[in-house]
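Newbie here. two chains, one complex. Structure please?
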Amino acid sequence: MDDANPALVSAPGPALPPDLPPPPLERINDFPDGISPMLVKELRQGLRTYTFVILFLVLQGLLALVLMTTGAATSASSSGGAGDLVSQIIFCFFSLAVLVIQPLRGVSAISLEIKQNTIDLMVLTRLSAWRIVWGKWCSIVSQSALILLAILPYLILRYFFGGMQLFAELFLMLYIFIISGTLTAITVGLSAVPSVLIRGMIPIAGAIAMSIFVLWGLTPSLYVFVGYLLPSSHEFLGAIGFLALTLYIGYFFLDMGASMIAPAAENRATRKRLIGLGVFTVSYWILQAMDPDIALAGALVVMALISLDILTERADFPRIVCGPFLRFGTLGRLVGRLLYPGYASGALFFAFLTVLLVVFLMLQTKLQGPALRIWATTGTSIAVMIFPAAIMQLFARKSTQRFSLYISLQLICFTLAIIFSALFDYLTDKTLLWIFCPIPTVLVPLIDEVWTAGNQLTITFVTWVLAGLYYLLVLAGALPHLGRMSRLENEQLHREDFQS
Amino acid sequence: MSEHAISVRNLFRYFGTLKAVDGVSFDVPHGSVCGFVGANGAGKTTAMRILATLDYPTMGGAEICGINVVNHPDKVRSLIGWMPDHFGNYEHMTVLEYLDFYARALGYRGAERRARIEEVMAFADLVPLADRLSNKLSKGMTQRLCLGRALIHDPQILIMDEPAAGLDPRARVELKHLIRLLAEEGKTIFISSHILSELGEMCDSLLFINAGRIVHHGDAESLMQGSDAAGGAYYDVQVLGNPQAVSDWVVLNPDVEVAESRKRGSRIRITVNDPEKSAEILRRMIRDGLQVVEFHREQRNLEDAFIDILGKIEQSNAQAAVLPVTHHG
């Protein structure tokens, strides 16, 4: 304690010497009491970070420069048509800022708290794990909103260059902002993953993809893109569906991050699974009205996200988690087998979702003709989702990093699928590739290439047999944990009896 | 109000096959300072984290003021202040803002929030540091800030894991002083440390943990007065005249040994740790003509006491290992 007060060291007495000024408490009233403490903390820190300050100033400088040079060029030549160019430049800068740089700031949001051991200190306050993660997300998104507000004056000035589609451009800005929020949620949620490789690799890969999208995809076709968003078209429903899916993905990753830092006694799995089940069912039936293929694709995306979570959760939890379920007797115990935290109940929940999807499909399609392709695709997708969990059951049963392992295995499988897909063009004997069909991702290109009237049923059968085999492996691994659930339930019941 | 501030019963915590805490039971009375001593990896931090609701037991239970830490973690959290062994501070955040964040997170609003911050800043002597960035503080300042944070909600019980680790001597004295002030206020303090001499000065009782098990629970005074691993006690004897006389006398007395010859006498070891025996030996010395001017028992330091206790355990384990297996029934 370099600057320690000697009076304090030498003798006990009043800790605050009378000659010291009072603490500058007025400075802590910069944010009202109503704002979430986490948001206050993150904003105080975030607004002072060099990344934000530099980004904000550089963006302002660049946009001012673009407007001035365009203005000067327009007045010199006295010709119109510069508006489109200005719009494209504004959107390009804005998109890079909020789709690439801002989400990347979330990469270390939670990992830094875990590394510094400050997450425990926060958990001991009244802040729940969800409020911690939500506050971190809100802070970055608030700063993105500040950037959005800061570029609005440039859009107003751009109006004087002519050719402005006000609503279309505002719509596009809103869309970009929503996507930015989702990407930020993904990086903030993934920042709780223990593996540095996964935590860094996915967001950076995403940032590269977004940069390419912004620089080469979005700007040259600005109005084509905006055209899809405008009302009174068939794509409008698609846009709403896209928006809903985006919101769910954002929620999913934030809650996943919260689950990773929450104390084991805090059961986050049940609500997350119920919300996932709701989104899975509702989105399927809404999108079904538009296009059955899109409905299936949407349901499979939601199921893939849910699987990522339920097949990788840590298996153990304290008996206190059983309490709310046990109030409903046998029914509660049964529901608990699906909704307790951990990959053991996750395996049963996965089976439940699969059965539900099969029922949905049976209500819509028949097991023949073109519909068979839908069944083959569904079987393959389910095998793809369960395969990494089966591999972990065989070779890494006691791994504490199930999430990272699942993602890594999935990435390896998809890389293999790309390689085999390329190989297919060079091979004369295509049947050779069937040797690799136990890797379910290989089935994706394989089905595309060999789908003929003669082997449709065989391929469909193979996909479902593989999915079933892998599922049985996962279930075998889950059985000991399912047995442990009964023991925990009995302990909890015994405890409640004792206390009452 | 419950009988004990902290009550632990048959607490087990396993990490796979590792038994971090292996059937621990103890009580800490209200308003006392209890030191928790053990080597690295003995299970101190795990047990403390369970008490702080940051981990949960594999079996057994723990209560804070009669409230179960597993069943009611939120209630327990309002009663405890937790100081971890290591933690980082935030970038771009001043000491004042740091405390303000925790005050807000603990639910304090408006004037009450300001009052709580003012109080802990005054107590932990943080007022001069109010505008300093929290990640630019020295280790001692950081510990004071951490103590201030732990006290914001005025908890009844403080759980401190190695708070003096890495502090310079002056910072240690300051921290010890603050802990004494808190004890005078009637707070229960459960503190772990490697610096046993300091724990001995400030603690009412000491808990020794080894390999996940409690191996001793008692007050520091009795430990320092206690016998060595073989059950003996050391005395400093000074005489007038020839100091060799003590050694010569010892040869004739089988229950006394010379541990070390000194300038004015000897350091002797009495093989039985019993005050009556000591008094009898002193009487005998005088009766036999030794001119004794000083006869006092040496106090062991806590490190020696701890090592002696561990030695006794190892000895009894070794004996148990060579005992023949007895078949019953």
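Moderator note: DSSP finds eleven helices and 14 strands in chain B. The mean pLDDT of chain B is 87. Thread marked as resolved.
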